[in-house]
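$ fold --in a.seq
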Amino acid sequence: MSRLITAVLLFHTFFTVAHAWEHLSEPEFQSALNKDEAAIIVAFVIVSLSTRPAFIGGQSKKTEHLETTWSLAIPDAKVPLVSVDCSANPTVCASHGVSSSSTIKLFKKGEALSTYIGPRRASAILAWADRVQRPVVSEVSAATLEEFKKADETVFIAFLSADDEASKTAFTNVAGRYREEFTFGMVTEDAALKAEEATPPIVKCFKPLDGDTHDFREVSDVAALEGFVKEASRPVIAELLPHTHQRLLDRGWSMVYVFAATEAERSEIRKELHSMARGYYKSLTMTTVDPLEFPDLPAKLGLDPAVLPAGAVHQLSKDRIYPYPKGMGWTSKELQTWGLDVWQGRIKPWTPPGVTTTYNDLGGRIKATQKVSMRNIPGVKIRVGGRDEL
């Protein structure tokens, strides 16, 4: 990604996004909740309730970035977006379980329906707001099928026979566990099954942003279906989140972490590396990371937190970490060239401070829950035992 493009994106964001915080007082907040039965999205804003300088700085930046995101979301929101200043209204925030960091909640009929856990991205917040107001599993007909496939960033649709109660129960069970993250629908209508040319039972995952579709047939097996939902929902380049980090590590494949300061920069990097990442989708787990969400992670990867963008590969099979060189660009060509150097042994793994090693016993500092065979590094594809390996 060129520095010029980055500069333009930052310039545009800084000068075109108006300040979004127009905080409600406690009476105004209560009035907004009780005004009618419509939904309302509330940002409980915390700059800092700590005296630690590092904590204050991190919270201030997170709040600034959230305000930018909030401003971008307001024009396209289908429901009101309002905010509450927790420093001025600590009782209000505490009554809704907000104490240490800014939190977004969706209220309906005066009650909190959902708490947002996704990335600080306007389109993701709006998609979540629509998602959690839908049924856990929506009934989809032939007339609504094509539109429903595009209803969210990730949509799962079960195509089932009307009398297949086992599959219906399993699908509803899994949908209940993941309805905060994804949208779920069910088709049993003959006309819709015919339109899709679907032979039940089958679950299809539609991802409009990546243009991908994944299929799964063991619908009545809850454990297998849940595994499919977790894997099929993974974007070509994922946005790392606290609740998905271990899920991605559990795949056992090499993790690629790319840190960038703003969503505009992370989005541009995802676009630049998308084609390359798609080629290694099954054998590589690629992510972009908001450093404000993971302030301790750069150091665990041998990176300088003050230098962004930055990145590293964590080879889980041998627990080795390879920091991406400072000063190199974030193009597919540069990343693949570096990956080839790693594979050919011209680049040694990072040695954590205080460790003396021959490179056979380094050990990383990020937990991986599986022991697996050797995996892939970007730009390298080798057949070992009939599969792609590092």
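$ fold --in b.seq
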Amino acid sequence: MDDGYHMLDNNSCEDVTAQFEQTSRDMEPGALMFNKDFLLHDAMAAFEIGEPRFDSGLVLLDDSRPPFDPFVPLLPEEVCWIIDRAFSCELRLLRDFILQMAWHTGYTLSQTVFSFLYVRALPDIDPDIISPHHHDPDRTRPVELISVVLRASVLGLLKCCDLAWRELVKGNVYDCEDWQSDKCDVPMSEAYPVSGILGILDEACVWIRNSSRVRSTWRTALTHRLVPRKTLVELFSALLSKDYFRFQPLIETARVMLQHVRASPPPPLRSCSPAPRAFDPQFPRVLVSAIPLQPIQLPEQSKVWDTLAGLLDSLEQLSVLIEIPDLSTWDVVGTLHIWQPRPNQSLAYVRSTFQSAIYENGIILNKYLWKHAVDCFLMEALQIPYDPFISSFQTRWVGPDSLPLRHIECTITELLIGRIKSHWYNPLRRRRYCMKLLFDWHELYATLTDVQKHLAPVVSSVVR
């Protein structure tokens, strides 16, 4: 065996290569030979996690990348570019828009939002504690673009992720299956109230409007990027509080701003621009994480805006549906969602918000009690109102035990609400759920059949 390996010059070592070669000649390809007491734990103990010579999954960080400095002066167009790319991280996770959107599509926070290095630099760029020597004399690159404008955008991004995280942990969608909940011990503006974040974004817009150090073209472009972030914070907050009546004006504002952003993209960055250093796909490797993560490529900016538009369309549809009391309408819409899906409208966050609107904490459609589901079921399936149906059962009941009305009502409610909510499950879970639901429907049928056997016949009087 000549592979360049040389034994150590140690008299206590003995070369056993020939014995292994002799023994292995009678073995089939792929066969293994174990000592009697040799277990999997003993085999794994031979590998040292994080040791480059043994751990094939270890990829060392790129030392050639220049260190990130949050105080490097930026031009207004570079700040616009950074804010746009930040949106894609969120939306890639749900899918400010590129980083945030990446999270919404199922990637981890560490792969998306937390790869935006200004997230970790927030304490350093606070305008109240920033050092005077960071104020650059270059009038085209005022430090307020970082300490006021970019900081407000980052705080808004994190607050959107925090509000979305609160919706996603309700249990309507499943961690590690539909989305990733691991925060890697990184704060996401949880301590900031929504009103505080909105105030910071308003202050940034005021600074932009009154600044004489930023050209009017870029003042407008920066404002067009902060307003939709503020609008998203308000939308996500309204979703948690179920203030659906606030949706329409917020959605219209976001759409108008999105049109302006699409129409005025920032110019291509120069090769010497520091803006790309704000994103480090390898940064997740230094965070506390339960699983090894690979760097991901963020989507093209146009796809990010498409995803954001799809998110706004979905929320608008929810604001319309919530005013419709008929559960059959929700059933039809959910079926169309499955069989004729629209692009960018299947984000885990959207599916969770629809399920929360259908049923949460014993309330149906944010206003009805459980009786509403039974009433809808009877009217839509049998054309019989709820109260006459129950009255007829109670009048005609002749069974030895009490009439199991409560059991029937709870079962119908659970089955009907569960079926409608399942339209917004992921495909595999919906298939498994519907398979289990079939047995429950048969059980309800058997219960109603048994009840029918203990009902007195209807005697109709014939007038002659």
